[in-house]
Every structure is written in structure tokens, then in C-alpha cells.
Amino acid sequence: MSLKHIDLLICCGSGCISAGALKIKERFHEVLKEHKATNEVNIIETGCMGPCDYGPVMVIYPEGIFYKHVTPEDVEEIVSEHFIKGRPVTRLMLQEEEKTFAAQKDVPFYQKQIKVALENCGYINPESLDEYIATGGYEALGTVLTEMKPQAVIDEMKASGLRGRGGGGFPTYIKWQMVHDNKADQKYIICNADEGDPGAFMDRSILEGDPHRILEGMMIGAYAMGASMGFFYIRAEYPLAIKRIKMAIAQAKEMGLMGDNIFDSDFSFDAEVRTGAGAFVCGEETALIHSIEGERGNPTPKPPYPAIQGLWGKPTVVNNVETFGNIPTIFRKGAKWFASMGTEKSPGTKVFALTGDVKNTGLVEVPMGTTLRELIFDVGGGMIGDHKFKAVQLGGPSGGCLTVEHLDTGVDYESLKERGSMMGSGGVIVMNEEKCMVNVAKFFMDFCVEESCGKCSPCRIGLKQMLEILERITSGFGREGDIEELQRLGESISKLSLCGLGQTAPNPVLSTIRYFRDEYEAHIRDRSCATKVCKDLMHFQIDKDRCIGCSLCARNCPVKCITGSRDEKYIIHQVDCIKCGNCYDVCPVKAIDKEPGMHPDTVAHRAELSKAVNRYEDL
Amino acid sequence: MKTLADLKKIREKAQEDMKLRGGNVRIKISVGMGTSGIAMGAREVMKTFLEEIAARNLSDVLVTQTGEKGLSSMEPVVDLIEEGKPKVTYGNMNPDKVKKVVVEHIVNGRIVSDYVVATGD
Amino acid sequence: MYKEICAKYAPNKDNLIYILHEIQDTHPQHYISTEAVNEISKYLKLPENHIYGVLTFYSMYSTTPRGKHIIRLCESPPCYIKGSINILRKLKTILGVSVGETTKDGKFTLELCACLGVCGNAPVMMINDDVYGDLSEEKVEDIIDKIRGRN
Asked: C117 vs A296: CB contact, 8 Å cut-off?
């Protein structure tokens, strides 16, 4: 007999775990025991609820009360006040502009969202097959297997208009059709969970929060194309996702939802988990296939496409996690319903990972075509502090940045591409006015250089060249013509590289040149970084009027470039300064300022040096 | 599991276990759990509701709790909220009265007027 | 020991990555030694150069001995934007090592890594299998102290 009258859903996505969710769960067990109330509360660990910045978060049913930033010390109060006495703890609720949002559904973060792939994430216990079934799980698979021919499944996919959510936006049904039409004794289906884009974590969250959904989506695809074996290729950096999907496979097998003659049809299916070992390029489908085969994850030229010759030479489909996540719902609610959301060319919803200088970082799902403004300011809650929005980088290192003028652009595959950015996997990195765009572009380039597999020369050598030019510019050695050189290199690398990594790697540089050319020019011509991020293009200055002559700065300077006395006050010898910022941090009266631009002394010193070098070279 | 009917059976059972998280609720019982309510035995009242409902397998009835209702002299106070009908508030509840309310009101749809202290919002 | 680990897997080439993972995870110094490569080579009937080719391709494998706890600080843009540079400086100071080095007592190795996918709680780091988010300089000190204290 169940006396449980409370469902306590604790978000145990990686974000909340990193903020201490597991300790809180333990504490609940202890406190409930002390209050002899263990038989009144179901403690359920769920996947990611979305608003990672509020973490650790929890939702308490039946009321649907949402608590944020919960600490182990709060648990006693939640149990004794809310659970025992029915008085929800107001101070743990979201409070904004003197309003309190008690119920999860009222929290502004959730308001504009429509959840399809994330439907169950943060709502069900991901380790319970029963809970997935309770939400309608495996109904789509059952219907497909018992009532639909494989071609009808593909036709339904075509009608839904679903496009690959991993980045390229290739219509999913075309891949399926190609493998379906390719007669072979063995075919494979692969779930690409090698989510390496910095700033993207939707695949991890869905795998952790609703693993059965992905499994069901994969099986529907496998049936449509005639594959009997599937692989989940998951990054080794995601141990929890690996554990959850393995558990889901075992549960499905035990229940008879996987194995031979599923739903008494002649469809049989098995799946295994394969892991990577830290290589960004393995997100590219041919590289991924080689990695599963136990090789270096080098991409190979297409054609042959994996649909013709893939894993171990057999026809193979590689679909992204989020793509699979949409499929069960498409078959449960119909292709028409799915196509009615989003835009004409990009139907449905898309999961975005909001990160950077935005208030509500986390995972959100909105219809395609939602504007950047709605995404960043309504769902994301706007910028942190009093800062201004400067730019947003979409699509990680493969994408491009957009600016204030694009805020009213609807987010879909085409409109982003037109503006020099791309959907990518859906990482949205928001930046405020303190960020230097040249520096950001350099940072992304550095990432691509590091992750280039080295197989084709445009990517291996070309990206390195671009990085060197960027380093030159940010360290004050930029030359006239560097911007044009970057553009020329970028365009050739895009055209000539073998795989998506190289083809898209120049995007951040090209798009920042397109929208922030004046910043590049200031770096090169004025030797100045207006945001004071590039160390060589800024300097520290002690204000004599404010300086109290305490000598703290001089004593903390690691290169002893600050001298002075109590009467004369202190001064920084610019040529020797390494811009470590110690003096700035320790000054008790904040008498040290960061100034944009290279100090005239440094400019003169560098000119001397280069003269000397030239003389030496002339000899 | 071999058929969609098998799946449906599992689903219905599983939905029952998840009913606290919304879905198919006909009657919501809301027990006032303020300090005075608890002092007067509200926890016993709530427990009895939960036991009775579980024993009778009433899958569309939900028990929740709220804070002080401001009717101190009539604690423990319980609201029965039914979709499309005025709210019924019972006062001075105890486990025996709870059993009667479950049988009469929840199962048979007859309000136990002797215990009612207020109706409507 | 290497033989036993190999024997858990079928002698197919596609198991190479998993054998390497397990050997590295179970080795107290978290690395893959030349003896291990030699053993795998015999078991999978693959030339050693193939195994080195694979193992040096993936950033998670190490061919040099490392510390008991491996600290992997995320160096991706979302963490960078939220100040991972300061966290790195702090880690270097309290551990007294540079990136890629191991502390003298053999307890910690400091590494940088690609995105850990916890960007909502940037900056983040992973120590062994545990992820720590919303890092500040004080928090880092606290975390390292706790791990030091445990052993």
C-alpha cells in the first residue's frame, strides 16, 4: 500500500550534479528518515531540466513547485515545512522583479519553449523503462512494426520534413531511403553522440535524461531501412550518458522490446555502445565509422557515402541523437503535427544550449524560426548584470557570430547560413561588450588547429597559417593586408578541405571580419584592443592622484617593473611589464587603470628591436 | 511483450504510479497542514486518506497538502476539489470521518453535509 | 595483468579502443606502457605501429605515467568566456605544476581538455570521473584540499 503523496524530482543532469545535486539527494534520504517520512515521498532522479544556471534544481509534485540553487542546508526546511506541513519554501523559488514564481510552468525560462525531443527530460526517471512507457513510450515503435511498411515509414518522415539535428540539416528521410533502396545482407544504423562542439550539450542531456526515446527512434529508423544492428557512438567524456544508454538497452531486451521478432513482427534488432577517446573529428560520420572499426578517426572522402559503403563496407546510416529524439513523437502525433511547427523549410523544434554571458544558461527547446532576441532575452533572460549584448556565436567552432543587427533573425538552417553562421548542433554562446572578437576568433581557430586530424593539407597547414596571422594581430605585430590574407586563406580552406571540420573551421574568423572589421583594423593599425582583452594591445597605468604610495603593487610585481616611493608615488615601466595584472588586483585604492592600446614606450621599444633585427639580417 | 495491448497494460500500470505528476485526476484532496492543523491531527487525517484511497485503488484521486487555511477553530480542515464543481471544505476531521468522506463523497458522489464547513471559493 | 584485460575482449580490431581504455583506467599511473602495447599487439595480431597510431590519435590516452587524480580543465570558449584562465592560474599555483605535468607526490596531473558539455555551469573541470562546475578560485582550492585530505 502506497502512502506516497509527494514526487520529488531532483535534476541529476551533469550540470546539476556538478553543482552538488547528488549530495542533496543523499541529504533528503537522511532527513526524511529522521522525520520518519520516507514512506511519503518518492525521490526521483531525473535528467536535465534545462536551467543549469539555477542548479541544483528540483520540482515537487503534485503542485509542480520549482526550487533553485538548493543546498544541503536547505533540505531540512524543505522536508519539515513543505513536505510535512505543506508550506512551500518561498525563498528557494525563483524571484524576479519582486515576483515569485512558484510553479515550474510559470517560470519565464519555460514559457516560450515547446518540448519535443526534451519532452521527458527532467520529468521522468531516466532509469525507469516503466516511466518512459507511461508517457507513451514505445507506442510509436509498436504501431510502426505492426501497421506500417518500411516505405510508409520513410514517407511519413518525408512528410514531417525532419532534418538532421547534428549540424548539416540534411533531410533525414533521404539517408533512410538510400539505405532502404540499397539491397545488402547486412545494414547498420549508428547514433552519433560524439558531441564535441564547445558549448553544445543537448545530446548528452537527452541521452542522460531520456535514453529510451533515442533507442526507440533508432529502432524505427532501423526497421525503415532494414538494419538489424545499431551502434551508439558516445564520447568517453560522457560517462553518465554511456551508463544510461547501456541500462536502457538491457531493460528493453529484458522486456522484449529488443531482440528477435519485436512485437511479433519479423523485425529483429540489437544495439551496442561504442565510445570515443577524445577526438573532435570523430563527429564527422566517416571518421566516426573508422573509429568504431578500431582505427584512427580520420575522415575519408565522400563518395562513397556511408549509405552505400559504411561500417565494415556495409550500407550505414548515421543520425544524430536529437534527430532520433524527435522520431517517436513524430510517429505518435503524426508528421502533419510536426511539420506545423517551425518554418516551412525547417519544420519542428530545435534544442539549443545557451551559454556565455546570458542570465539563464541551460538547455532550451523552441520552434525553428524563433528569433535570436526571443531566445536570448525572453528564454535566456537577457544579459548578466548591466552588460550589453555584443555578439552571439552559433554552431560552435564551425559556425559564425552574429550581432545586434541580427537579433530579429529567425533561427533556421537557411537564414543562419545566409548570414555567415550556421545551426551546427545548436550551441549558442552569448557574448557581452567586454569580449574582443579578434581574440574569440583566435580562440576558435586554436581549437580547430588542435583538433585537425592532419590528413588533408588545407586543414592541417592552412588553419595553422590562419592561427599564426591571428596571433600576430593580437600581439601587436599585425600588418596591412593581414585581413585580406585571412579571407583568402579561409575561403580556400572552406572549398578544399576533406571533411566538415576543415570546411567550416574558417567561419568564426570570416564572420567576425564581416561584422567586426573595425576591431581587426584597430588591432592592426592602432595597435589597440578596445576591450583590453589582448594583453599586448593594452597597458596598465597608475594614476598618481589616487596612488597612496603603499608599495603593495611593487612588492607583488613578479618582474619588478614597478618603482617609486611614498612621496613620488609609483610608476610602471611599460617595456618590462608582462601584464600579469597582479598590481591591478592588489591595489587597495584601485589606483591602477587598464588602458586600451599599446603604450608609446612599448611601441618605441619594439621599433628599436626590429631595427636591430633588420640590421642583423642585412649583414 | 508481444502486442500493443501488452504495452497498453504496462502503460496503464505505470501511469498509475506516476499520477502525482499530473494527468488524470478527478478529485483533488487538499489537507490543511498549518501548525494548528498539525496540532489537531492533520497528519493522521492525511495518512488515513492515503490509506483508504490506496486500499480502494482509487487511481483518479490525488492527495496534496496546503498551508494554514485560517479556520483554526475547525482544524483539521480538508478541501475536496472536483473538476467543474464548487469546492467543498470539511472541518474538524478525524480518521473516522475521513473514512466516511471517502465512501460517501469520493466513491458515491454524495457530500457528507454534517462535516461541511464551507462550499465554493 | 595486460593479458587478462585483453582476454575479456574478443580478439577483433574494433575492440582496440576499449582495451586501451581499460588498461589505462586500471593502471595506477593511468597510462599505456610499451609492455601493454606489446601485449595488445600479440593478442589482436596487429603491428605495434598500428596501435601507436590509434593511441596517439586520441587525446585521452597517455603514453607517459600520470598522477593518481587527473584534473582536466575545460578550455572551450564557453568556459573561457566565464574565466577559465583564472582557474587555470589558480590550479597551477596550488599544484605547483604546468599543464601536462604531474605533482611530485604523484597525486595530481593537470591537463586541459575539449568541451565537457557542462557549459551551463562554466567554468568546469573533471577530476577522474567527477565533474565540478561553477568554479571559482576559492572553490578550486577547496576541492583540491578535500581530495588531498582523503588520501
From this structure: no
Subunit contact A297:C76, Cβ cutoff 8 A: no
Q: Are residues C146 and C74 in the same domain?
A: yes
The CA-CA-CA angle for residues B80, B86, B92, to 5°, reads 40
| Chain A residues lying within 8 Å of B26, measured CB to CB | none
Instruction: List, in order of start, the domains of chain B with CATH numbers.
Output: 23-119 (3.40.30.10)
Kindly list the structural domains of chain A, giving each domain's residue range(s) and its CATH number in brackets, ordered by start: 6-107 (3.40.30.10), 129-339 (3.40.50.11540), 349-432 (3.10.20.600), 446-525 (1.20.1440.230), 536-603 (3.30.70.20)
Helix or strand holding residue B88 (H, E): strand B88-90
Residue C64 lies in a domain: no
| Residue A387: DSSP 8-state | P
Hey, are the CB atoms on B20 and A7 less than 8 Å from each other?
A: yes
Q: Is C117 in contact with A435 (Cβ distance < 8 A)?
A: no
In a domain, C77, yes or no: yes
C73 and C31 share one domain:
no
User: Are A195 and C117 inside 8 Å of each other by CB?
Assistant: yes
b or e along A444-473 (b: 16 or more beta carbons within 10 Å of the residue's beta carbon)?
Answer: bbbbbbebbbebbebbeebbeebbebbeeb
A 219-258 residues with CB < 8 A to C: 235-239
Q: Are residues C7 and C48 in the same domain?
A: yes
CB-CB neighbors (< 8 A) of A49 in chain B: none
Measured N-to-C along each axis, helices A172-181 and A150-160 cross at an angle, to the nearest 10 degrees, of 160
**Cell digits of residue A102:** 512558484
Mutation site, A16, A18, A240, A316, interface C, largest C CB count within 10 A:
A18
Q: Which of residues 22-41 of B touch A (CB under 8 A)?
A: 22, 28, 31-35, 38
* Nearest Cα residue in chain B from A120: B21
Q: What are the pLDDT digits (tens) for B25-65?
A: 788 888 887 777 777 888 889 889 988 888 888 878 888 87
Residue C44 lies in a domain: yes
CA distance A444 to A16: 27
CATH number at residue C129: 3.40.30.10
What's the rounded Cα separation, in Å, for the pair A180 and A227?
9
Domain limits for position C125: 69-150
Q: Is there a single domain that holds both residue C36 and residue C74?
A: no
Tell me, what's the pLDDT at C104? 93
User: What is the number of structural domains in chain C?
Assistant: 2
- Whether there are 3 or more C-beta pairs closer than 8 Å between B and A is yes
Residue contact A18–C134, C-beta within 8 A: yes
| Residue A278 touches chain C, beta carbons under 8 Å | yes
Query: According to the model, what pLDDT value does residue C145 have?
Result: 93
With respect to residue C62, please indicate whether it lies within any of the assigned structural domains: no
Grid cell digits, residue A562: 614597478
Which of these, A478, A405, A396, A391, lies nearest to A437 by C-alpha position?
A391
* Confidence at residue C80, expressed as pLDDT on a 0 to 100 scale: 87
Task: Give the three cell numbers for residue A34.
Answer: 529522521
Q: Where are the alpha helices (DSSP H) in A19-165?
A: 21-34, 75-77, 85, 108-111, 129-134, 139-147, 150-160
Best A5, A6, A82 residue to mutate vs chain B (most B CBs within 10 Å)? A5
Between B53 and A482, the higher pLDDT residue? A482
pLDDT for residue A107 is more than 90: no
Mean pLDDT for A461-470 is 97
Nearest to B18 among A131, A139, A263 (CB): A131
Question: Do residue C74 and residue C143 come from a single domain?
Answer: yes
Beta strand residue intervals within A369-439, DSSP E: 389-394, 400-403, 427-432
